[in-house]
């Protein structure tokens, strides 16, 4: 599709991801300066709590711990504070494979990923304060009630949905259509949740199609998840609202919460006493220097799916055989990293000649101004116009869906193969069929 585009337009569209990359690199350089001059000289030798990894979870945990003024809390994050450009929802896919992404790749797969280059899956993962919430598609989906109830049944006390619901409500600042549903939504929390602000006519058609199939339009975060909806998103005034914005900045700074970006944790320091293992501190690397810091109470590891397992293993906590192979001293033989499951995503592209949606032209200044001054227009779009949860015949319960559909208004090549194709790693062979 890219070759059908006149050269001048191709250059124009291609310059957008390049300019975004320049912004991100400038932010990296500024962050090095800021951390070296204004942050690093002021950290202490010990804190009550050390939270390692300032992503979606870590930012919230560090902030909540520091609500108690008697505790001192250190948050260590490998990435920088996010640049403002990452708050523009439409550019989500351009953030992949930039310095804000760990850019993990799987090994070439034998039985799947056939539409991807070399059968390799791209595992985008935030390397930035706010973690995945800076790079993700902003869909606000809590998960299914029955999953939580099942986790409690499996022995995880306190994880039933009825228990967890109070915390979802406490976290949420619902500003959209479910604002007055106080049985399921909160309006006083730090995390801003809105309805999408820009949709094509296809969003409505998607809901209507669901109704034709006998599904209702539902609040997927309400009493019943099965059905069709237009998504709720973690945005504020049409801009991305990451967990870092919700919990760490935008007026959330506290003197007992110290945030250290650009610091990469390399080891959890542990001691053994009376047969028990206790985490007493963290070793980390900042600007090529190794530093140690003590935790008076606890170390919380929130480095994400891959990062947490890796840090634990580097600290000697992991499968014995694997640690022995890597010559890491064993602190505890544990099945860290086992049962890792990826979710399978399947794409189907349909073209509708009367309702084709394309990204805004880079020189459409009205769209820029609409975003900047009104928080509206195509730049507020995360591209996911509709969503549904349905139960296949394999599901145990119709209220426990096992299929989630994300309905994109754009095809995977609507951006002329410039951004989405390389970000997912779609092969040339498949791309020209889309
Ligand atoms: C492209 C994409 C789209 C997504 N879309 C959605 C969506 O629309 N809705 C949704 O609900 N979910 C979505 N997700 C998933 C969601 O973003 C993640 O589940 C969530 O961010 C995970 O949170 P976390 O705190 O566990 O990990 P992360 O947010 O990944 O945070 C881990 C943090 O730890 C840091 N870290 C790692 N190792 C170290 C170390 N050694 N030292 C210091 N810091 C370290 C990382 O830099 C990172 O900031 C998406 C994910 C991706 C990648």
From TrEMBL:
Keywords, sorted A to Z: FAD, Flavoprotein, Membrane, Transmembrane, Transmembrane helix
Molecular function GO terms recorded: flavin adenine dinucleotide binding; oxidoreductase activity, acting on CH-OH group of donors
Entry-linked Pfam families: GMC_oxred_N
Keyword Flavoprotein carried by entry: yes
Residues annotated as signal peptide: none
Transmembrane segments: 7-25
Keyword Transmembrane: yes
Family according to the record: Belongs to the GMC oxidoreductase family.
Protein name listed in UniProt: Glucose-methanol-choline oxidoreductase N-terminal domain-containing protein
